[in-house]
Amino acid sequence: MDKTYHRIQQARLAVYLGTASIIFTFFMPVIMPYVLGSVAIVFAILSKGPEDRMSSRACKACVLASVGLALNTAMILISVKTMADAAADPVRWKQLNDMVYRMNGYTLDEVLSQLRSSLPF
């Protein structure tokens, strides 16, 4: 098999991984989109080979992976801001505690106290 075929396959895999990074942003956020998006960008760059330009498929893969990474980062920042706002307002914090208790059987206060006691500092 020639090297062109492998470059085409790498670009195709990069598109699939970039698309998966967007999908996993909504179903398995935080870790998977960062891993898949980063690997997609690496495969897109590797598919270029010694040529001067990347193929259109590799460019699409870079765009998809970048969108997945940006969406995941935005979701994480929004979640952190929401938690910080809820921590500042006692009424919202109680609502959040109640919701987490109904979903998981424990409150955020219990989780945070366990976390504080397990930290060495």
List keywords for this structure.
mainly alpha, 5 helices, 0% strand, 121 residues, elongated, single chain, 2 domains
What would your notes on this structure say?
- It is elongated and about 60 Å long.
- The mean pLDDT is 90.
- Helices cover 83% and strands 0% of the residues.
- It folds into 2 domains: 3-79; 89-121, no CATH class.
- It has 121 residues and is mainly α.
- The longest helix is centred in the middle third of the chain and has 33 residues, at 56-88.
Q: What is the structure about, briefly put?
A:
With 121 residues, the chain is mostly helical.
- Secondary-structure element order, N to C: HHHHH
The number of domains: 2
Helix content: over 70%
Query: Major sheet: size, sense and barrel closure?
Result: none
Give the integer mean of the pLDDT values.
90
Overall 3D form: elongated
Quaternary state, please?
Answer: single chain
% residues in beta strands = under 5%
Give the class from helix and strand content and strand pairing.
mainly alpha
Rg to the nearest angstrom?
21 Å
Number of strands: 0
Number of helices: 5
